[in-house]
Amino acid sequence: MADGEAGAYREFKALAEAADRKFARARDLPLYGGGDHHSRKAFKAYTRLWRLQQERRRELVAGGLRRWEIGEVASRIGQLYYARYLRTAEPRSLVGAYVFYEAIYSRGYFGAAAGAEGGGRHQALLIRYKELRFIARFLVVAMLMRRAEAVDHLAGRLRAFVEESKVAYPKTNFKEWKQVLQELGRFLKADGAYKGSRSLRYDNLFDSYPSNLASIARFHSKRVLKLKEAVLTSYRRNEVKFTELTLDTFRMLQCLEWEPTGSYQIAAKELTENGTVSDQSGPSGLIDIHLSAEISDGGLPSNPQKAIIYHPTVSHLLAVLATICEELSQDSILLIYISASGSAEQNMASQKYASSSSSHARAASFPIDKPNSHMSSDNHLWLGPRGSGGPNNLYPEDLIPFTRYPLFLVIDSENSHAFKAIHNAEKGEPAALLLSPRISSAMPGVESTGHGSQFTYFLTAPMQAFCQLAGITSDIDTDTYANAENILFSAFEEYEGILCTSVGLNNVWGQILPDPFLRRLILRFGISPTGLRIIWKKKEGGSLICFKLDYQGLSIAPGIPKSELRRRNKSHLDTQRSEKRATYDSTEIQQKSTTSEAWQKVYLLSSSALLFPPRGA
Fold first, then answer.
1. Which of 99, 247, 282, 550 is the most exposed place for a label (fewest CB within 10 A)?
2. 3-state DSSP call for residue 101?
């Protein structure tokens, strides 16, 4: 081995060790409240390392550089891109992560290295673990990119690779990865229930209604708040999740982003198990590290920055809120989304009726609560593992200090009603509250869905939520689904027009309606309570029956006087009243009723929130 070749490899190893130290510091920092400095330093170090292996590849290979080491560097760069996406919500950073992960997978950096490695079984096992973790990370990015074919392929590859590893290393315990596969299966079953459906992200083509733009513009003459920061967290036992991303936060994360267009939609490559993807750069590793910097979409505003907290303690959550509030600008509003159980006892009780594979879905969608209960367990959320205790309880009073800043609070829990206490108790800024409906009695006969929280599902994907509630499967006719979606869009457009032209609209809502993300959540909230009034259950004969549930709207809904709503909808009410009454009085609807007539019934159910607002609205 020539001295130049050995020297090049020593330089590579020294730079790799320095970059790894910077990466560790950046990785250990939270993805909120600063930390960009360490992330930039780590990215700069890996940029230098990547360029070195590009420019001196032949010398490095001759000096002992192995393919898995190149894959490890590329994987770290992909992780930095993904961390930047989580920190800044920049779509181009997510694209950057996908590009690097796809290149690693298609070139088989880890797989080829494991097969050709001569450093012994221990070294090969370590490389195998690296590849398992890499595929799991790639899966998360592919799911966020909505690459259905890539997700299906990677999921199959991960399952096969775990089985191969168990055979190759029979004395090694892969129990953890078996659990990962179980979580992945539940997650993909829930997230992929309606493949081909529209993205959860905000799309101007579908989510913006030109007929109401002039009405929305009138709010700009007064104070207008923009959504620039959001805190998303979910803590439920047995909830649907993959790695540290729960299904509820996964949906809400996408719901608070713009749908990318133009150059963001990079061409998808066909992923193959042996890495035979067409690759112009071949084995040279010429992946452009600045590729994502060249991808831009000037027509879209920036996405709100989001802090996604996985299973936090109460003190951790409050610390995050305090940090973010300190950095909140004067024209900004902070969205706080919390999906959690009411208490340990309620969560355990609700699981009595749930199967072992989908107990979270029952606890989330159909929690158990007594109608007139005034127990102390119904005045807080429960953020904790098994057992219960004061340190794990989040009370409405814990959030009141943060009302010195504008807050948009979304609580998804059977105890959400407790957070009405925040109303009129604010310390400076009136808070906007969207609280999930409260189910007043146990529903032991209702089937568990495994689709995550029903309320969050309505807020992020209302059409899919209606389908899931009605028991309509993913094999629904495409035209029927599209027609039903257009009907729902029309209901949203009409409801938006009423909100934006209302004389009696509370200023709390008036100053946030111009924000497209918040306006869309408010519109869907106005529809979802009615959808949640109807729980569809299979009967023995194969038909469906309706169950009516309580709704606790009161002051949380936009303050439009009933008289105005009824006046605006009088003609519509007169023409539809008899048909609507027939819909409610009917106790049986055929299970396969996917015709336009059935969807008209869905529309009538959804539009009743517009016709008859909740008491106190």
1. 282
2. helix
- CB-CB contact of 230 with 86 (8 Å): no
Identify each DSSP E strand in 209-248 by its residue range: 226-235, 241-242, 245-246
Pairing of β 241-242 and β 534-538: unpaired
Band (32; pLDDT cuts 50, 70, 90)? confident
Question: DSSP assignment, residue 202?
Answer: B
By the 10 Å C-beta count (0-12 exposed, 13-18 middle, 19+ buried), 62 is classed as: middle
Task: Please compute the mean of the pLDDT values over residues 443-462 and round it to a whole number.
Answer: 71
Q: Count the Cβ atoms, other than its own, within 10 Å of residue 120.
A: 9
State pLDDT tens for residues 503-527. Answer: 878 888 889 999 999 999 999 988 7
Judged by DSSP in three states, 432 sits in strand
Question: Does 471 or 209 have the greater pLDDT score?
Answer: 209
H helix or E strand, kind and range, residue 218: none
3-state secondary structure of 355: coil
The pLDDT of residue 287:
59
Tracing tokens 């050995």 back to the chain, one arrives at: 6
Asked if pLDDT for residue 541 goes beyond 50, the answer is no
Domains of the chain: 3-187 (1.25.40), 188-259+291-611 (no CATH)
Per residue in 224-247, pLDDT tens? 999 999 999 999 988 999 999 999
258 backbone dihedrals φ, ψ, rounded to 5°? -80, 145
Single-letter residue type at 215: S
Residues forming beta bridges with residue 246, ordered by sequence position: 241
Question: What's the rounded Cα separation, in Å, for the pair 148 and 605?
Answer: 32
Tell me the whole-structure pTM to 2 decimals.
0.81
446 and 399 Cβ atoms separated by less than 8 Å:
no
d(CA 374, CA 345): 15
CA–CA distance, 327 with 324 (Å, rounded to integer): 5
CA 76 – CA 20 distance, rounded (Å): 9
Q: What average pLDDT does this structure show over 157-183? A: 93
Does residue 83 have a pLDDT over 70?
Answer: yes
Report which residue type is found at 68: W
Dist. CA 111–CA 273, nearest whole Å: 10
The residues near 491 (Cβ < 8 Å, ≥ 6 apart) are 527, 603, 606, 607, 610
- If phi > 0 it is left, if psi is from -120 to 50 it is alpha, else beta; for residue 584 that is alpha
Quote the CA–CA distance of 92 and 145 in Å, as a whole number. 11
**186 and 240 in contact (C-beta within 8 Å)?**
yes
Stretch (H or E) spanning 329: none
The sign one gets for the Cα dihedral 372, 234, 184, 270 is: positive
* Contact status, residue 100 vs residue 78, Cβ threshold 8 Å: yes
Asked whether the predicted pLDDT for residue 588 surpasses 70, the reply is no
Whether the Cβ atoms of residue 407 and residue 334 lie closer than 8 Å to each other: yes
Distance CA 368, CA 345 (A): 10
- Name the CA radius of gyration of the chain, rounded: 26
Q: Token pair for residue 257?
A: 């982003």
Indicate if the alpha-carbon torsion angle 226, 231, 235, 238 is positive or negative. positive
Phi, psi angle pair for 233, to nearest 5°: -150, 150
SS (H, E, C) 525-574: HHHHHHHCCEEEEECCCCEEEEEECCCCCHHHCCCCCHHHHHHHCHHHHH
